[in-house]
Amino acid sequence: MKIRLGFVSNSSSSSFICQVTGEVYSGYDASLSDACMYCCAVGHEFGEDFLIDVDDVDQLISCLVDDKVAYANEYNPDHPSFAHKIRDEQHRTYFVKRYHTILEDAAEQRVWLTEQTFEHVDDLLERYFDKYGEYGSLRYEVPSIMCPICSVAHLRDQDLLAWLLADQGLDRNDLVNKLKQRHSTLSSLRREVDRKRSNEASRPGFDLEHS
Ligand SMILES: [Zn+2]
Fold it and tell me: Where are the domains of the chain?
């Protein structure tokens, strides 16, 4: 979940964006359930239709523990980006404390999860969120294995772009500068994209399925 510090209001406008379709839901004091959306442990929001079914209890147990550790690592004080990400001294102290608390919670939950016997996935989810859920419900903290973004059932453009740039050994800023030099308008850039696509498609033996 996103953490909003210092945000206090009796009635506020909330909006949710499905990261699969881009659909936006907004309303005063709206909740994720009003929007028919879920939010995963990392913070991806998505429509109910995209929730992924899981039937392996053991797989779900290790996911729940891993998610907790991954969440803590977002604020790992040993990570080089930490000081840069959280500039305010007071917030830093808060997150360092939070980091250690989450890791301790994760260790406790791991013990509890392995001591229990769960009949099936629904039984596990219900008892786990009842005991440890910050919101007492799956809706606000879907395990990553059930999230379409985390499980790569849906690949967002930003993740696709990051992969393509890394794969091609390109730096984003260099590429932006190169394109700015070549094109002065978006339509000119789009014409080049269309041209490249039609050249690619007309290549002899080109087969998207197997290339
Ligand atoms: Zn996710």
Answer: 54-132, 157-195
> What are residue 25's DSSP bridge partners?
16
Spatial separation of the C-alpha atoms in residues 138 and 67, rounded to whole Å = 14
pLDDT per residue over 113-139, tens digit each?
A: 999 999 899 999 999 998 988 777 889
Q: How far is the CA of 114 from the centre of ligand 1 (A)?
A: 24
Residues in the chain: 211
Q: Are 144 and 41 in contact (CB under 8 A)?
A: yes
Contact assessment for residue 118 and residue 17, using Cβ atoms and an 8 Å cutoff: no
Q: For residue 121, report the distance from its CA to the centre of ligand 1, in Å.
A: 19
CA of 181 to the centre of ligand 1 (A): 37
Ligand 1 centroid to residue 110 C-alpha, Å: 21
pTM of the model: 0.76
How far apart are the CA of 140 and the centre of ligand 1, in A? Answer: 11
Q: How far is the CA of 141 from the centre of ligand 1 (A)?
A: 9
> Which SS3 state, helix, strand or coil, does residue 27 take?
strand
CA of 129 to the centre of ligand 1 (A): 17
Q: What values do phi and psi take at 186, rounded to 5?
A: -65, -35
- How many Cα atoms are found within 13 Å in the side-chain-facing hemisphere of 147? 25
Residue in this structure with the two tokens 């996911």, named with its chain if needed: 63
Which residues contact residue 51 at a Cβ distance below 8 angstroms, ignoring those fewer than 6 apart? 38, 142, 146, 148
